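In this supplementary section we document a worked example of the pipeline. Step one takes a protein sequence of length 105 as its only input; no multiple sequence alignment statistics are reported here. Step two produces a three-dimensional model, which step three serialises into structure tokens for compact storage. The input and output of this example are shown verbatim.
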Amino acid sequence: MPDDLPIISLESYRIRRGDGYCLHRERHLDDNRRTLTCAKCGAQLDVFDELFRLVRDREQMIYMRKQLTEDIEKLRATHDRLKSDVRNARAQLKRRQYMREKDEP
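The serialised model returned by step three reads:
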């Protein structure tokens, strides 16, 4: 990588507002002018960058949903195993109580 490449500060791409930096989460699409602006701070947004962000966020949500589905399946299996363990423990307790009652005169 060449050493003569300039270092770009991200500060120039963020819009400072009274309560901090605007992350441009609320967007306004003007289909007549074919422009995309931030609804909070009014900054002009690059359409390709926003489309890329939407696609990336969607892919991340799909990945997270897959992970959560796997976690749910693991929890269901654990729940079923624990339910079975409780059922077995109750049965053992009943057997022991029955044996005690049987042995007592």
